[in-house]
Structure formats: structure tokens, C-alpha cells
Amino acid sequence: MKEFQLIEHFFTKQAISGHDVELGIGDDCALVIPAANKAIAISCDTLVENVHFYPDIPPKALGYKSLAVNLSDLASMGAEPAWMTLALTLPDVDEEWLTSYSSGLFEAAEYYNIALVGGDTTRGPRSITVTVNGQVPIGTALTRSGAKNGDWIYVTGTLGDSALGLDVIRGSQQVAVEHQSYLVGRHYYPTPRVLAGLALRTLASSAIDLSDGLYSDIQHLLRQSVVSAIIDVDLLPLSDPLKSSVTDEEALSYALTGGEDYELLFTVPEAQKGALEIALANTGVSFTQIGQISSGDKLKLIRNGQPYTPINIGFEHFS
Prior knowledge:
Elements: H1 3-11, E1 21-23, E2 31-32, E3 38-48, H2 59-77, E4 80-90, H3 95-111, E5 115-123, E6 127-137, E7 152-156, H4 161-169, H5 177-188, H6 194-200, E8 206-209, H7 214-225, E9 228-232, H8 240-245, H9 248-257, E10 264-268, H10 273-281, E11 287-294, E12 299-303, E13 306-307
Parallel strand pairs: 4-5, 9-12
Antiparallel strand pairs: 1-2, 3-6, 4-6, 7-10, 7-11, 8-10, 9-11, 12-13
């Protein structure tokens, strides 16, 4: 199967009517029509085999996840998904793999209402680059730089499940049978908090998505906002499968530094706390207050009122 046959067979199955696409796959460029008075949010992520995923990952899960991790970036900015492109590097044309991969990709695309409008395919070591575009009313995008002294710090969902799920997959942790599918699913099928991001646009002062672990990611926000923070690790939201599978200390380590949660961490001024309860209740997303922004330039973790140091520091490329 040649390149253009591959593209046509596996990646032109999506109906793109209603996505403001003037011209989609099949030309040198896609043509899209942004809505009036909206800024375009753009994010790009690359997943490389043996770095971001193992060769034996189910292709459908990889297809879903390769889009979901990008949608999490849009969520953290309060942007509504609109269009995406896909650059796919493959060692060979495996039609069974491509069928499964594309089904996962389009499952996520249909659920989050985003259109595939172009991309590229080439031969080489397997890697996947997805670029997503979203739209957000001008002047309302969430950023990492808006946190102020006294703002309250929240996270959506639960933390640490994905990292434990990865350890289950690679055999370095054993968990009860009844918890395996949940934990592995949290790693393979993360939930980008798009609706929560939309709801937070007029309420949160700053936001970031948690990809490399809370301990690492919050410090990006603190540097951009030029503030400090106090986090009470006893308040971190932990799922029952996580708590039932590892020690308390290991659970905190997974939650703080495990990574790939793709939850949102955000800050909210005192005056908006009441409105926050109402806005996020309508999204069905759980959220937990875990600390407060303070003056200074250091992140402080406490447990039982005492300073706390995590076992690990989170993931970093080129470290």
C-alpha cells in the first residue's frame, strides 16, 4: 500500500461537516475557518516508541491516547477542540495495526468533536506527532501566569492511577485482579478535562495540565506566575484502587511524581470559590482543593503539618 492509499484508506473516514473546514485532507494545506472574535490555541506532542509507549501497547489505545494527551493541553487553556493534524512514522504498513490505531484515534476525535484535516506519513522508527487546534474567546484563555498570592489550588480527578497502571503493565507492581483493568485503563485511556477547562475560563486565575507529575508541573506554573505554594499532600485525591494496591508512601509518590495523569491543576481566587462549585458540578468532574498560593519563590509540601519531601521528582526529557 502506497502513502496516499494508506491515508485515504485509514484516515479519511471522518465526516468533517460542521467543523468549519473549507478544505480537508487531500491537498497541500487544509483550509479552516476560525470563528469571529476567537483566538486559535495550538499544541503539538510527539510520542516515540520505547520512550512514550512500549511496542506491545494495543494500537487502539495508542490511537486514543495520542490525541487525548494533546486535548489535555487545550483543556488547560480553556480552548474548545476544533481541528488536528497527524504525522505518522511507521516501520512498515501493517494494515491490522493501522485499522486498530485509527479506530482509537477517531473514537477520541468523535467524542471530543475535533476534525482530522491533514498530516503526513513516512517510513522509519514508529513515532506519532499530533497537532491540535482549538478556539477560545479572545482574552479568556487560561495561562500558567495568572496565579496570585492567596489563590486556592485545585486538581481535577484523582492522581497517580496512570503511573501505577504503567507499572502493572511492565510487571513491576502486582495489584489485585479487580483493580487491574481500572489502573491500566487510566494509563491507556486518559480523560482530557475539556469540559472542565471550558467551565474554568472565567473563574480560574491560572491552569496547567498534569503530564509529568504534580510536583514537577506545578513548578512551571509557579515560575510563570512568580509565586510560591503550599501543598498539603494529605489532601491529594487518591482512588480506592491506588490506595488498596500500595503503601501510603508509595501512593503519595505516584500522585506527586508518577506523571501522565492528564488532570488539570488550577488556581481560583477566594471570591470565585462559590461559583467554582456550581460551574464544575455541571461538568460531572470531581475536583479537590489541595493547597494555596503564597508569596515567595519555593514550593512547600507539608504532611501532618510538617515539611514533606517526595521520593522522586517527576519526569523530564534530557535529564
